Records
---
Amino acid sequence: MSNWSSIKDLRKKLEREWEQGKLLSARLRGEDLCPRRITLKRPLGNEWAEKWDTAKAWVDELIEAETHGAFTIESQEVNHRQLGRNSFPQAVLFKTDESILSFIGKLSAARIFDELCCQILADFPELRSWLEKRPLVALQYQKQWPRLLAVLKYLKSNPRPGIYVRQLEIPEVDTKFIEKHKKPLSELLDLILSKEMIESSATGAKRFEERYGFLSKPVQVRFRILDPDLYLHGLSDLHVPVSEFCALNLEVDHVFITENEINGLAFPNVKNAIIIFGLGFGLDRLANIQWLLGKKIHYWGDIDTHGYVMLDQLRSYFPQASSFLMDRETLMAHESLWGQESKPTRRSLTRLDEKELGIYEFLVKNLLRDALRLEQERISYSFVLKILKKLV
């Protein structure tokens, strides 16, 4: 049928408006969808005569849909030189909202949406703007709304409860439900709670608890005491909340920091020293540990662009921090073990010393190999011992 408007085309056009939320949003605003006239792409000029069989099938398809009450065909009477006087379809007219919704098979869903809106707005009229903007999301959570509303009612009455989510006592709402629905809950809570009840700087699902005043799982620091004489009641490998580590103030001279967990576990004994490990990109949790300012800090990261980014970050908290096993000697001694960094950075780093900056620029400019990377765990243990012996 060439590019003539088929029933499938009409349905796709209206389905697209449904998927964009336009039909339900208009319905909630009380705007009538109908009457709705849609002009047809139709045979023109000599196409009626030259493609009569195809054109007639096109007309028959429209008439068949009209007989089922989908719409009314608007026709234009044309006196054709070859075919004589005929009425040819030029548009279709949907007379009721229900006719459009039935045509695309969404009448039942629209009625469910109506019921949900009545239910939601009865308790929270301030959610009208959200329902207009996110009608399909509202439908997506159709079965969850009773529990979503229960959570909203509780937190509106008990903002910033200061307990763990696990401690909430809301009938038929368990911890897992809240964990799975943090995204919609966040959108809704932001609309029903006053601004002073929301920690605006805490964004994203991982900071849900902080944003709405729940207790969060404490951020931890893992460290090993490398001097047996300093073990705490016989304990050498500890995992403690940052707040407790902050108050610990260990009497050590050296603090090693490494990303890799096995490096931290295998690190040899060192007099008056500890090693902090497993932080990954979480170096910021050390930022406020004041007693570290008076220690000799040695950072051991990968020799790649992000390794130096983290060294630069650590120096923003502890300017005295030095790099460990991140020099040219280490890099060249392990050439056979070089790998490739997946997403190198070209960030400008201002806290590296001259030698570190030289290696970083080598990496950024790919002067030795494209996206060169030497992972810290590839450095031989005997080499670690040799360099460590020179250091302490």
---
Amino acid sequence: MGQSDAVAPTLAPDVDLSNYDDEQVKLMEEMCIVLDRDDKPIGAKSKKECHLMTNIMSGLLHRAFSVFLFSADGSKLLLQQRASEKITFPDAWTNTCCSHPLNVKDELVEKDNLGVRTAAQRKLFHELGIEAQDVPLNQFHFLTRIHYMAPSDETWGEHEIDYILFMRPQHKELVDMKPVANEVRDVRWVTKDELKVLLEQGLTPGSGIIVTPWFKLICDKFLFSWWDRMLEEGDVAKVARSEEVEKIFRL
């Protein structure tokens, strides 16, 4: 392997996890897909290793996804507030579901982004209790990828190539869900105008509203134009432009 393809070296500082939720600590053992800057898998590291700022600052990069789940008429987007128990970005408002494909056979499939879509379906059930039959794999629509880095605090952060997925189920107006308290503190269906208010509150000191950095980046760069396009076209499959699908946006 050339230097650009080598798995970034990682450190294993003695991070005390005893004050964190036991279930969230266990999830830190999952193996994420490590990437080069061109989104090529080059290895695997634990979720803990991938989210330590010491490793992030050394260049460790992993694959992620962000799901945007809409109402059937496209007028509302489902948001979640991350649980207080989360190790990274607790209590922050974000898009419907954000997580990582794992270094397992089904979630490593590159063709048609099937591995990412499989992971998204898995996590929608794990976090929000949304059944797979309500979010079929063929109804996830890939729009683009963003590459970003953001600290959560001095210890933890994100450095990801994030696959953006839209879904607009047609079989019912709003999908059924049973949010898992350990994962999700609150949920909210919002219109475009309501989302803009939430984002503004996230920038207002003392508002009590926190917004995840990747969600804010996606909203600032893409979301509202995509949302308009989806409503104009009447078809979520027509939202993505070819130049967006092919590009990794460095934000």
